[in-house]
Structures are given as structure tokens and as C-alpha cells.
Write a structure and sequence with these properties.
- The complex is a heterodimer of chains A (223) and B (181).
- Chain A is mostly helical and 223 residues long.
- Chain A has one domain (2-222).
- Chain A is 65% helix and 2% strand.
- Chain A contains nine helices and two strands.
- Chain A has helices spanning 2-9, 25-30, 35-58, 68-90, 92-98, 109-117, 124-153, 181-209, 214-222; strands at 156-157, 165-166.
- In chain A, strands 1-2 form a two-stranded antiparallel ribbon.
- In chain A, helix 3 (35-58) packs antiparallel against helix 7, helix 4 (68-90) crosses helix 5 and helix 4 (68-90) packs across helix 6 (109-117).
- Chain A is globular.
- The two termini of chain A are 24 Å apart.
- In chain A, 44% of the residues are buried.
- In chain B, 30% of the residues are buried.
- The longest helix of chain B has 44 residues, at 8-51.
- In chain B, strands 1-2-3-4-5 form a five-stranded antiparallel β-sheet.
- The N and C termini of chain B lie far apart (77 Å).
- Chain B is an alpha+beta fold.
- Chain B has three helices and five strands; from the N terminus they run αβββββαα.
- Classes of the chains: A mainly alpha (223), B alpha+beta (181).
- Chains A and B meet through helix 4 and helix 5 of A and helix 1 of B.
Chain lengths: 223, 181
């Protein structure tokens, strides 16, 4: 059980796909201009990640090593197409604003990477724990980046939904660069910098006090 | 595996996976397609009313190659017509519904039906700030980018696509109504 929890928890922070592993950068940069699109993209990617993780883990003894990559791609593409159809049927507005980035989930290297390096070698339970953790880690990262960019670029939060919040007052002059691709690079760079600074701080603290989390900090460094 | 020789197992496994995928997807397609088509149809109907704000009744007209909608007010007077045209954006086609007052030769309203522009950048062509500038424009205006039309910064191609589509719709409408009807 502890093992499963570890498989789940590592995606949230220690091996966060966006801030630590820097995987799936294309959607991270392209669709985080609002918290809404970031959240939706994160959920859509998580669904594919979990679905492909389960199937690839179940079929791991059936698929010959020589054709595993094409098999993974077909399985991933199947789940992505399901997401594409259902999002266009049930969330037409958000689907329209994400447009071609939903089909592009197929080439998100996070999904193929987890299928190849984890799901295809592990039992289903661990594959699910890993996929859910990575999915949640990816989703919060995209939503977080989207929220920063949306607040600075539009002055709102969760635009285009019923839950739109006006964060900034009337005085606020939206920084349109934050909604453009350069805004994605700026935000991501600053957030990763802060992420690293926090990690280093906890590393030096554990050195000072020598507590047991030193081991995890060492593992982190070696990734 | 010997060079140049393909194990039949590889072919069989991959074929089975692809077939399962195809079967599954055809079910999902069958299930979602009518809903997606419904969205498109209701989006069209909504768009006609959106671009002819005063219209209460619409009538579908098919004249040769051209398909358009006539909009009437409560008393049955013709207010204007609505028709679609497509312009070329940055990523692909931009389908626009345009409402036109053929008597005063003015644009009554614009609605973007479909586009695949960059989210957050070109996709801002759907925002009212951009679209409202076309309302009330006369057919004889130049529709020149920068001078006559305010371009969305960072999305010139998308803005041009919309403008082209509107101009295209006006030209089509004038062909139908050419020589005064």
C-alpha cells in the first residue's frame, strides 16, 4: 500500500512531469493562457494517461518488444480520439478553444514515456497509481501556470466558464504578453526557478539538521 | 529475430490491437456524432439570430450554389439576410456567419462559426471587442487592415481571415441581389 502511495505521490511534486521532468512542454506552453484551458487539458491528458497506463500494463506480456512503440501509439491514439469526440460532444466551447491541441495529446511525450518506462513493466495497480499521480501533477501544474497567466493577462480566473472570477480591479491594465507564447516561457521559467529554490532550501535544511528526509532529497538530485 | 524475417506474431498482435481500436472508436463515434452534429446545427441557427439581432423569424433559402437565411421582424418585413463565408486564417479556414442589410448596404452582425486559430491568440477573433467593429460598416468601406479594420495584435493572419470572409459574404450577397431586388 505504501508502495502504491509512493507511486502516486511522486508525480505531485518530487517527479512532477512539468516542473521537474519537463515533459509535455508543447501543451504546457501552448494552452496555459487561461486556468480553464489548462485545467481541461490537464484532465484530458490524465484520462489518456490512466487509460493507456492500464491497457499497456495489462498487455505487457502480450505485446512483443519489437512492436511495443507502435502498439503504445495506437492505444494512446485510441484514448485521445475518445477524448476528442466526447469533448466536442459535451464541452463544445472549451473543445473549440483548445481546437487541435486535443488531438495533439497523442504526441505528448509524458504519456508515451510513462507507458514505456513504467506501465509496461509494472502490475496494473502500480501503473494506475503512477498514472493518476502523474495526471494530477500535470493537471495542477497546467492549471497553476494558466492561473498566473490569466490573472496577469486578463485579470480574471477561469474565463469562459460559469465560475469566472474577476480577480483584478478596474485599475488593472492586462499584460497581453502573458496571454501570448512568450508569457508561457516567462511564467514557466520563473515557476521552475522558484521550484528549484524551494528544493535547495529544503536540501540545505536537511543538511543542517540531518533529518530523515535527506534520502529523498538525494534521490531528487539524481533524477 | 533474424534479419529480414518478420515474426508473424508481431503482425498478428499489432493487427489485433488496431482492430480493437477501430471497433471501439466506431462505437464512440456513433454515440457522439449526432450530438456533435446537433451542436453544429444549433450553432448555425443561433448564429443567424445573432447576426440579425432584430429578426424574429428566419427562412432558409437555397439559390443555386448559394445558401442563405432571410430574417424577418415581427411584422413580416425583411430585415436582412445572413450567409456564411470562409476566410483563410493562420491555422486553417475560418467560417463566419454574416448578417447583411441589403437595403442600406450595411453589415448587421458577425459571428464566427468555426476556426482553428491558436488558442488565446488568433482565437481572440471570437471576442466581441474585435467583432463589434464590423457592425454598421457600409459595403463600400475599404475593409483594409490597419486603416479600416483594427487588427488583433499578434494575430494579423486571423484578423485578415475574418475580414476576407466578410468581404466574400458581401460579394456573394451582392451577386444574388445584384441589380436591385
Amino acid at each position: 500500500m505504501l508502495k502504491l502511495f509512493k507511486d502516486f505521490a511522486k508525480g505531485l511534486w518530487k517527479e512532477n512531469p512539468v516542473f521537474v521532468m519537463l515533459l509535455g512542454m508543447c501543451p504546457v506552453l501552448a494552452v496555459t493562457n487561461t486556468a480553464t484551458t489548462g485545467l481541461f487539458m490537464g484532465v484530458a491528458t490524465s484520462f489518456v494517461l490512466i487509460g493507456a497506463g492500464i491497457v499497456n500494463s495489462l498487455l505487457k506480456n502480450l505485446i512483443p518488444a519489437e512492436v511495443r512503440i507502435p502498439s503504445f501509439i495506437v492505444i494512446i491514439a485510441t484514448f485521445v480520439t475518445i477524448v476528442d469526440y466526447t469533448s466536442r460532444a459535451f464541452f463544445p466551447d472549451i473543445a473549440a478553444s483548445l481546437a487541435l491541441f486535443i488531438p495533439l495529446i497523442i504526441v505528448n511525450c509524458l504519456i508515451l514515456g510513462r507507458s514505456e518506462s513504467f506501465a509496461s513493466k509494472m502490475p496494473v495497480s502500480r501503473a494506475i497509481a503512477d498514472a493518476v499521480g502523474m495526471g494530477v501533477g500535470f493537471t495542477w501544474a497546467l492549471t497553476f501556470l494558466g492561473a498566473i497567466r490569466e490573472i496577469l493577462g486578463f485579470g480574471t480566473l477561469f474565463r469562459g466558464t460559469e465560475f469566472t472570477l474577476q480577480v483584478m480591479g478596474e485599475w488593472f491594465e492586462p499584460l497581453s504578453i502573458m496571454t501570448l507564447p512568450p508569457g508561457a516561457f516567462l511564467t514557466l521559467g520563473v515557476v521552475i526557478g522558484v521550484f528549484r529554490a524551494v528544493e535547495n532550501k529544503s536540501l540545505s535544511l536537511t543538511r543542517l539538521f540531518g533529518n530523515s528526509s535527506l534520502n529523498t532529497a538525494k534521490e531528487e538530485k539524481s533524477i | 529475430m533474424a534479419k529480414g524475417k518478420i515474426e508473424p506474431r508481431l503482425v498478428i498482435v499489432l493487427t489485433i490491437i488496431v482492430m480493437c481500436s477501430a471497433v471501439l472508436l466506431s462505437f464512440v463515434h456513433q454515440w457522439t456524432e449526432p450530438i456533435i452534429a446537433e451542436h453544429a446545427a444549433s450553432a448555425d441557427a443561433e448564429a443567424v439570430l445573432a447576426v440579425l439581432p432584430e429578426a424574429e423569424e428566419t427562412e432558409f433559402v437555397s439559390a443555386g450554389d448559394l445558401i442563405y437565411y432571410k430574417g424577418f421582424d415581427g411584422a413580416g418585413n425583411l430585415i436582412g439576410i445572413a450567409l456564411q463565408d470562409e476566410g483563410r486564417g493562420y491555422e486553417g479556414g475560418i467560417r463566419v456567419m454574416v448578417g447583411l442589410d441589403m437595403e442600406d448596404e450595411k453589415v448587421l452582425g458577425i459571428d464566427i462559426l468555426e476556426h482553428s486559430e491558436t488558442p488565446g491568440l488568433g482565437s481572440r477573433i471570437t471576442e466581441e471587442d474585435f467583432l463589434d467593429q464590423f457592425v454598421g460598416k457600409s459595403f463600400s468601406d475599404s475593409f483594409e487592415l490597419q486603416n479600416d479594420i483594427d487588427v488583433i495584435s499578434g494575430a494579423t493572419a486571423s484578423s485578415r481571415g475574418v475580414t476576407e470572409a466578410i468581404k466574400g459574404a458581401i460579394d456573394k450577397a451582392l451577386e444574388v441581389y445584384g441589380g436591385g431586388e
